Amino acid sequence: MDVLQDPKYAYLLGKQRFYYKIWKTLFYIYSKLIFTIYTPLKVHGREKIPDSSYIFASNHNSHMDVALLSAAAAKSFNHFGMLAAKDYWFDSWIKRTLVNTVMNLIPIDRKIDGVRKFSIEDTLMLCNSFMDYENRNLVMFPEGTRGTPGLILPFQKGPAIFALNLKKPILPAVIYGSHKVWPKGKIFFSWPSNINVYILDPIYPHSFMKIDNPNQQEMNSAIKNMTSALEEKIKEKAEMLYE
Q1: Count of domains in the chain?
Q2: Dihedral of the CA atoms 18, 22, 28, 32 (nearest 10)?
């Protein structure tokens, strides 16, 4: 079966059902209240957000970070998708349904013995269809996990791979302050604190891949260079904030 015809992923394609949209909207409103009253959020560089779809990529120190990026873009969670492990989030109907009431999870399979049962091509097809409807976007954290505040971990290649294959820009951002409000390892919020999101200049894939049908060596080189450019942008800004 074509992955785009699989009813399991229908919520990612086109207009979503009402009960998915309403819960994402309500959660967004709740988040906005938190970012207005409890942890005042200031956004810098909102004018740099592309008019087209993009891949939001930032440092990652808190469970709040996805909500912060959504609020920074002034768009509800209906407009953002995140990659999630297929074997953990999608093989259970209950888990898949509950989580997708507040987030748009897009399946990606983890390699077992170097093999994916759910192909990366299927993940890219779902991402492409998701983003093509009303210019929706992806959120990715290049560090791959929540890191230590002020210490940027080496970037993984995921954002560059998806940007080059989907022909979508990466929008870098640096979040400062979420680590104070909801630190890694804590179940609940800590003390209130101001949070800042700095949106940086977009990185466009055509700057790294100027031909339509690259061979694997050319693609690998573009992925490496784009990843390095993204890491340099985010690390430079983060070091200024944490010095």
Answers
A1: 1
A2: 140
